[in-house]
């Protein structure tokens, strides 16, 4: 009943508030970085930790990214020029609706020097987006892919049965390569400036950094319903989602991979022009177990954040609860310090007891980002540190861990690690330069039968000990990752660009390096830096 009253209240408010656009910016570090100087300018009380962003809110901040015209054609009024360099493939714009269609290729050829192997990627994609009136926006894309991958990505795919963030694959070219499809889509409805409703199969990101210890977009897409409410300096996100576990044993009355449900609550408060704080809560529960089907638990329709921990105080519960805090401070213009604290389980006496209790499960993020660094336009830099304790995000029953489709829902490294990363980018007209360095140290399991806390898909009941646990326990492993990319933007509408890159990765004393060149498009975050 509480949820029914809440919806009624929302609908009533929509009748007395001004309208707003439903268009949503794609989840893309590159695309969002182009707006960084305005998002993190002093005086802009922007809810930067809730991604994706609303396009009309970005436009209201003032300056938008400007891309110079391509000099490749002298006559810029021709149909060919406009379609290649400045327009969508199909554009239909009317007062009461709009429709945009794009072809999204990703054709790359490369060389993995350490394996003397030719790598390649053959992706053909289509995207369709548009609006109906001023309140409804829709987006969908589809990609058909084949690829021969560098060694570590090849090994990851074969071990986990998925491509990182892109789902399941089929063997291709006599098992030497991979074939897979990728799709996402959603409908966004914004009846007023106070409410947005989004239904679809997509992702969500919470945080101001490159990584997130609360909820990232590193996994495969999942079906979800999101409600975003904005009142003054407050923004509140509620998301109900269904996740899948490919490893869990099947039950006769459940079709496909085992399902689990999740609800995300996130309340962001812009305290001042310089400071914002957000509180986070997630709850995961099983769709079914060996005793029967539970399905969607209606009590989690309650929109009040931290309602579930209050209920937990009344008795035991089989569900998995994660809470956290996200904070941002802007000490000067176009720059911000940010951080996160994620708590899986917490007992005050044990945390400060110094004996390494296994259930002291928490993660910490600290970072700094700056835009127009040294007053050089479009020179951006980020420095970030992440650390996560052993057994974080895991559960006694792996089915309700904080994961989806064989990957963690937070940091792609899972748990039991420390990481320092830096990302720098610079745009000059349509030229794009990007460099990234990652140093990570983590503790692996010396054998499958041992659980030192990195793999969130192992039950924490198989832990090696109750006390004496510490971050990096197990087989200490160092990872060095470096990537340099140079690209030329052909069309900003679909991010079509000529791009070349060099990657060097060193783990456990083994160095892999590869070079690639190709024609790439779309706005997506595909994480391969782990």
Report on this structure.
This protein is mainly β and about 525 residues long. It has one domain (about 1-520): Porin (Beta Barrel). About 10% of the residues lie in helices and about 45% in strands. The chain contains 8 helices and 28 strands. The strands form 5 sheets. The protein has an 18-stranded antiparallel beta barrel. The chain has a two-stranded antiparallel ribbon with strand order 1-11. Strands 6-7 form a two-stranded antiparallel sheet. The longest helix is centred in the first third of the chain and has 13 residues, at about 1-15. The protein is globular, with a radius of gyration of 23 Å. The two termini are about 45 Å apart. Residues about 1-10 and about 10-20 have low confidence and may be disordered.
List keywords for this structure.
530 residues; mainly beta; Porin; 18-stranded antiparallel beta barrel; two-stranded antiparallel ribbon
Summarize the structure.
The protein is mainly beta.
Please render the helix and strand layout as text.
Blueprint: H1 2-14, H2 29-33, H3 36-39, E1 50-51, H4 55-60, H5 79-85, E2 90-94, E3 97-112, E4 117-132, E5 136-148, H6 151-160, E6 162-163, E7 167-168, E8 170-172, E9 177-192, E10 195-202, E11 205-206, E12 222-231, E13 234-245, E14 258-270, E15 275-286, E16 288-289, E17 292-293, H7 307-312, E18 320-329, E19 335-345, H8 348-351, E20 361-370, E21 379-388, E22 403-404, E23 407-408, E24 417-428, E25 431-444, E26 475-491, E27 496-507, E28 510-520
Antiparallel strand pairs: 1-11, 2-3, 3-4, 3-28, 4-5, 5-9, 6-7, 8-9, 9-10, 10-12, 12-13, 13-14, 14-15, 15-18, 16-17, 18-19, 19-20, 20-21, 21-24, 22-23, 24-25, 25-26, 26-27, 27-28
């Amino acid at each position: 009943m509480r949820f029914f009253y809440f919806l009624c209240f929302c609908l009533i408010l929509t009748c007395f508030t001004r309208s707003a656009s439903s268009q949503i910016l794609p989840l893309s570090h590159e695309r969002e970085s182009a707006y960084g100087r305005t998002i993190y300018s002093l005086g802009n009380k922007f809810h930067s930790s809730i991604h994706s962003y609303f396009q009309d809110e970005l436009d209201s901040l003032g300056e938008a990214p400007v891309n110079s015209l391509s000099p490749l054609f002298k006559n810029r009024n021709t149909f060919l020029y406009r379609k290649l360099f400045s327009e969508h493939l199909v554009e239909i714009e009317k007062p009461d609706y709009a429709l945009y269609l794009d072809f999204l290729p990703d054709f790359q050829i490369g060389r993995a020097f350490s394996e003397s192997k030719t790598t390649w990627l053959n992706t053909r994609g289509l995207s369709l987006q548009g609006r109906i009136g001023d309140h409804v926006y829709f987006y969908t894309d589809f990609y058909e892919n084949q690829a021969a991958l560098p060694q570590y990505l090849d090994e990851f795919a074969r071990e986990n049965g998925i491509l990182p963030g892109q789902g399941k694959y089929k063997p291709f070219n006599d098992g030497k390569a991979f074939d897979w499809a990728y799709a996402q889509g959603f409908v966004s409805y914004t009846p007023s400036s106070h409410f947005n409703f989004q239904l679809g199969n997509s992702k969500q990101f919470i945080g101001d950094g490159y990584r997130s210890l609360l909820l990232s977009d590193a996994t495969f897409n999942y079906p979800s319903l999101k409600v975003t409410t904005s009142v003054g300096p407050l923004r509140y996100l509620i998301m109900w989602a269904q996740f899948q576990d490919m490893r869990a044993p099947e039950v006769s009355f459940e079709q496909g991979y085992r399902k689990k449900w999740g609800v995300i609550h996130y309340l962001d408060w812009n305290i001042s022009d310089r400071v914002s704080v957000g509180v986070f809560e997630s709850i995961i529960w099983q769709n079914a177990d060996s005793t029967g089907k539970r399905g969607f638990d209606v009590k989690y329709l309650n929109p009040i954040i931290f309602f579930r921990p209050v209920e937990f105080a009344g008795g035991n519960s089989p569900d998995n609860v994660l809470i956290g805090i996200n904070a941002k401070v802007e000490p000067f213009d176009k720059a911000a310090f940010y951080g996160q604290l994620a708590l899986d389980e917490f007992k005050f006496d044990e945390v400060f007891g110094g004996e390494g209790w296994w259930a002291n499960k928490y993660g910490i993020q600290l970072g700094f980002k700056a835009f127009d660094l040294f007053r050089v336009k479009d020179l951006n830099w980020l420095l970030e540190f992440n650390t996560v304790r052993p057994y974080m995000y895991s559960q006694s029953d792996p089915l309700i861990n904080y994961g989806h489709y064989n990957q963690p829902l937070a940091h792609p490294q899972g748990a039991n690690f420390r990481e320092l990363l830096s990302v720098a980018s610079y745009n000059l007209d349509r030229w794009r330069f990007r460099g990234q360095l990652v140093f990570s140290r983590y503790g692996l399991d010396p054998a499958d039968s041992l659980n030192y806390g990195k793999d969130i898909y192992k039950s924490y009941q198989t832990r090696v000990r109750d006390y004496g646990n510490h971050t990096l326990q197990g087989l200490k492993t160092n990872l060095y990752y470096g990537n340099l990319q140079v690209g030329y933007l052909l069309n900003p509408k679909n991010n079509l660009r000529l791009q070349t890159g060099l990657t060097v990765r060193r783990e456990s004393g083994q160095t892999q390096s590869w070079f690639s060149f190709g024609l790439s498009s779309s706005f997506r975050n595909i994480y391969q830096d782990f």
